[in-house]
Amino acid sequence: MDKKLKIGWYSFSCCEDSTIIFTEMLNEHYLEWKKVLDIRSALILQRRDHHDEMDVAFVEGAITSEEQEKKLKDIRVRAKKIVAIGACATIGMPSGQRNLFDEEKQKEIAPILTRFKYAPSVKKLSDIVTVDSVVPGCPMDENIFLQVLTKYLKEFGIIIS
Amino acid sequence: MHTFDLTLDDISKIEGKASLSVKIKDDTIEEIQFKITEYKRFYTQAIRGKDIAAIPQLCARVCGTCSNAHLLCAIKAIENGLGITPSSQTQKLRELLNFGLNIRDHALHLYVFVLPDLLGIDSILDLDENKPEERELLEDTFSVKSAGNTLSKVIGGRSVHAPFPTIGGFLIVPKQELFEGLIKELQEVRPAVLRLIERFSNYSFLLAQSIQFVSLIDSDYSFLKGEIITSDGKVIKETNVKKYLEHVVIPYSHASGYTFAGKTYFVGALSRINLAKKYLHKNTIKDAGSILDRFPSENAYDNNLAQAIEILHCIDKSIDILENLKVEKEPPIPIVRKECVGVGVIEAPRGMLFYRLEMDNVGKIINADLVVPTGQNQIGIEKTLYAYISANIQKDQHELSHDIEKIIRAYDPCMSCASHFLKVKWERLSAKRINNTGNIFN
After folding, report:
1. What is the pLDDT of residue B432?
2. Average of pLDDT values for B77-98?
3. What is the DSSP letter of B224?
4. pTM of the predicted model, to two decimals?
5. Could you report the per-residue pLDDT of B403-429, keeping only the tens digit for each?
6. What is the DSSP letter of A159?
7. What's the rounded Cα separation, in Å, for the pair A121 and A100?
């Protein structure tokens, strides 16, 4: 079997708009991507989650709890490259809007933060782990995503340009 | 006698994060908890104090899946408050944008999330493109999704968080010259949608229950206007609907549940078809034929079939509008800010979406109340699971887990929507009775 790029698609706190864009990009690219991508994890598409090493992890969303932080660090250990996908992953917003709340709003949300063990503030991915590439946009910019994907397909020797 | 604990974490092929835990002792369910585990992003607080011009695009970010429904509902609430009546062109363009959303969203759910269950595979991408029958299914999947996506792109400028629609109209009107290609693409996917309807009509999975259905209905089946109709005969104006919606705290879930007039209810495609199948497009009625006789149906699994029929309806309605619409340049109606309360209700793909926005005299949001479809269905999902698991405790755990996922997917829950907000007075409202099984009784 030809070598494929091992990828994972992960989502943290966000509206998952970039996941939707990814599933819409499949409309055009699914035949081509089936040949070159080995999807190790992507809950939007499959139940199987191999939880093993991969070449590239695409990570959407901001980090709002210690549990999420732990999961992100685990992805970092298993992935050779991490790509931050969309605005919440790259700049932490708009999912991090609670960081900007005044005292009154902070007080309103405090019981929920305590009950479900939220972190004191919302972080972008690069606050926690090294991020190798970014695809900005809300939702992510499709062309930049294609450029980043192509870059890694070449870097890992899956396609030769 | 069966005694076991069953936990499903991070359920796949749904929108967002949810899990389920069940404790069974001596063939009896001791506890069942359907948990929405998506963390909140506190939109209700975040929009307070912001100017109304920023609200529709910010609210679109509540949910990437049905972003354009939030966009349209926020616009509607603000316009209703300010007394703005959109032009006939704007109304038609909004309908088209929303039809595009429904086609894409229902298609993603049915082909990518649900169909693998019917085929006994894990992922739609596991289909073999070298086998003609599987190739056709792959092509159907991506061409139907694509038709909805293209429709939203042409009308709204993008299929997710559409940039063109705004309060009072459209910032940029779509290009008329793209309509011909769009009509062709929509016509070309009709046979695929008919195959999808046929497939779901032939698959049976019974989730019988007695439940109330609630939807915003009009004689155009437009999703965007009308009155709230219930299966027990109520007809309610959208400005009055809030008094029927009762917020229920579910202590182990990040999201809130709701009852309607004190009863568990179902919102979404099944509810709409049950209440309004006679208003479907005439071509849809003709081609769906006797399959429509199945409705009204109290089988929650028929929500899938109802969605497939709605895809066809959205295609047929869109073709009609596109063939007759002559797009004119038309600037949005100017906003005159004033102190007011605006209520907007629309049918999002997953059901009734409610916005109530209080604005001050300089156009800032003072208070916001949003009720989303998945919150409204949450109690129903748990009750359906309770009934199904009780009746099928003998089943092997693997099979039972699989069935549970099928049931949850049939409701097409959207966790991003459900967990966007926070009800401030949750402590007070938690007085609602919750019995020791974790179930909520009305």
Report:
1. 34
2. 98
3. S
4. 0.93
5. 888 888 998 888 776 665 544 332 222
6. S
7. 10
Q: Parallel, antiparallel, or unpaired: how do β-strands A79-85 and A133-135 relate?
A: parallel
Q: Is A126 on the interface with B (CB under 8 A)?
A: no
Q: State the CATH architecture for B43-429.
A: Orthogonal Bundle (1.10)
Q: Residue B234, SS3? A: coil
Which residue, among B294, B321, B322, B320, has the nearest Cα to B308 in the 3D structure?
A: B294
To the question of whether residue B63 is assigned a binding role by annotation, the answer is: yes
The domain limits of chain B are: 4-36, 43-429
Q: For the beta carbon of residue B198, count every other beta carbon within 10 angstroms.
A: 14
Q: What is the pLDDT of residue B250?
A: 81
CA of B314 vs chain A CAs: smallest distance (Å): 19
- On whether the CB atoms of residues B368 and B44 are closer than 8 A, the answer is yes
**Are B39 and A43 an interchain contact pair (Cβ–Cβ within 8 Å)?**
no
Euclidean distance between the first and final Cα of chain B, in Å?
A: 31
CB contact under 8 A, A138 and B13: no
- Written as six digits, the tokens of A82 are 């991490």
- Average pLDDT over chain B reads 90
* Residue (of B285, B286, B267, B283) closest to B379 by Cα position: B267
Instruction: For residue B366, count other CB atoms closer than 10 A to its CB.
Output: 12
Average pLDDT score, chain A: 95
Q: Mind listing the domains of chain A with CATH numbers? A: 5-155 (3.40.50.700)
Determine the Cα–Cα distance for residues B416 and B59; give it in Å rounded to an integer: 12
* pLDDT number for residue A143: 97
pLDDT score, position A154: 97
Report strand pairing: B245-248 vs B257-260: antiparallel
On the question of pLDDT at A110 being above 50, the answer is: yes
Which tens digits make up the pLDDT trace of B42-72? 998 999 999 999 999 999 999 999 999 999 9
Q: What is the C-alpha to C-alpha distance for residues B279 and B290, in angstroms, rounded to an integer?
A: 16
> Which of these ranges, A4-8, A139-143, B15-19, B152-156, has the smallest mean pLDDT?
B15-19
Give CB contacts under 8 A, 24+ apart, made by B182-186: B182/B150, B182/B151, B182/B154, B182/B318, B182/B322, B183/B319, B183/B322, B183/B323, B185/B146, B185/B147, B185/B150, B186/B147, B186/B151, B186/B315, B186/B318, B186/B319, B186/B322
Question: Does the CB of A106 have a partner CB in chain B at under 8 Å?
Answer: no
